[in-house]
Amino acid sequence: MTQHVLAIDQGTTSTRAMIFDHTGSVVAVGQLEHAQILPRAGWVEHDPREIWDNTREVVGLALARANITRHSIAAVGITNQRETTVVWDRNTGDPVYNAIVWQDTRTQGIVDRLAADGGIDRFKADVGLPLSTYFAGTKIAWILDNVDGVRARAEAGDLLFGTMDTWLLWNLTGGIRGGVHATDVTNASRTLFLDLVTLEWRQDILDVFGVPASMMPEVRSSSEVYGVVESSNLLREVPVAGILGDQQAATFGQAAFEVGGAKNTYGTGNFLIVNTGEEIVHSSNGLLTTVAYRLGNEAPQYALEGSIAVTGSLIQWLRDNLGLISTAAEVEELAATVADNGGAYFVPAFSGLYAPYWRSDARGALVGLTRFVNRGHIARAALEAIAYQTREVLDAVNADADIPLRELKVDGGATANELLLQFQADILGMPVIRPVVAETTALGAAYAAGLAVAYWGGLEELRGNWQEGRRWEPGMPEAERERLFRGWKKAVTKTFDWVDADVR
Fold first, then answer.
1. CA distance 252 to 463
2. For 477-494, what is each residue's pLDDT tens digit?
3. How many CB atoms lie within 10 A of CB 250?
4. By Cβ atoms counted within 10 A, which residue in 52, 114, 440, 464 is the most buried?
């Protein structure tokens, strides 16, 4: 039996290749950051070619660090930043424009136009999502409407659309020489075009957006062999056998397979997902309905999701834009120089507010400032903002779900910050649990791929791999918890109605 599974984790700020063994333990990692292209306020882009080049390089790094070759890899899984949108020429392989990132807000005009007939929930009953700049559908429409000559090429059948999983799969399996043009149900459910019941593209919604159906990838399950890696790649002939959008992958990596299973990922943004099983649950409290995963021909599993746009990227902003810290890890030390936030609240509505508000008119605000507030208070307010936003989403889950959550499994890079996790437990009033393998996004993609080729025998075996690493118990008095949270809710209201016709 081959000894390992490799996962490609294509994220918002970097691309990683991670090699796992049969216990789900990390064997080796290769990682490279890619450029964040910010042409103007609210616009966020990536170069798809840079990401593809980085993908090939990090695979080589991981193999070298593990001291193995492709012959030791049973399968490749892909996980990705979900809504980030690429359109490219099927004949040349060249993107027609940079990838438009999920955080990008340039498509607000398209959202407003579509929402004029039926509001932002116009398609929500069918696709589980409100109209928002967040999702891929408006980004495709923008490219078709704004890049010279692209619409004609698309209508001629020359262009393909994909989220980053599709872009990588197509290139891995041959590109212009027969590359597989497909996506899985989790990524498809983030476009605004997928019918949650049939798991097929809705032609009527594509027509409303003006997107030719010929651009759309085939919708497949999250765990099956899509194709094999082409001959010029270090992984040649290895099957690509798993695809999960990053947040669903993290849920899968946390072994949250049962109804009520949940996790919160702390990455560029925060994403809380609760498994609802085979039932499609529509939220009354600002959450999204999405596909959790589908294994081969089995019934699809669904989830409620609370999506928060800016959490880890707020810490990067303190580093890169303000120079308040020189590394992201320093924020914990700086925040620990003060006992509390000094009355300051930081609402990072850089891309508007996602769940539970869905306010595209909001923009970031740092409020409650006095002369007492110093660098430490600002750092602490930034960390607390991550926890407060999670509390709001968890409250929405508890309002929607039949069985309220009583503990929170967490993962992602920011979970290395122990001050953050203690405050998270305090402000939630419930335990916060970090697994031994905190980078569960890549692990989930590896699991999906390994299941497809029988490297793992089933979900019960994967449950057995999950191990608790550390637990944080709440220690804050309830009156103090609610006082702080009341201040946060007040701060959030200060961000509303900022964007209008004259102020963007």
1. 10
2. 999 999 999 999 999 999
3. 31
4. 440
Confirm if 41 and 106 have CB atoms less than 8 A apart: no
- Per-residue model confidence as pLDDT tens digits over 134-164: 999 999 999 999 999 999 999 999 999 999 9
252 neighbors 448 (Cβ within 8 angstroms): yes
CB of 208 closer than 8 Å to CB of 195 = no
Report cis status (omega within 30 of 0) of the bond before 356.
yes
Structure tokens at 33: 């950051």
Token look-up 């209201």 returns: 493
Half-sphere exposure of 48 (CA within 13 A, CB side): 26
- The residue type of 313 is S
Structure tokens at 185: 């149900």
308 alpha-carbon distance from chain centroid: 10
User: Closest Cα partner for 431 from 384, 484, 475, 393?
Assistant: 475
The Cα-based distances of 328 to 46, 266, 268, 332, 334 in angstroms read 21, 13, 12, 8, 11
| Helical ranges in 357-417 per DSSP H | 375-400
Q: What is the mean pLDDT of the chain?
A: 93
Report whether 115 contacts 133 (CB < 8 A). no
Binning pLDDT at 50, 70 and 90, where does residue 209 land?
A: very high
Q: Which residues contact 204 (CB under 8 A, 6 or more apart)?
A: none
Contact 365, 222 (CB under 8 A): no
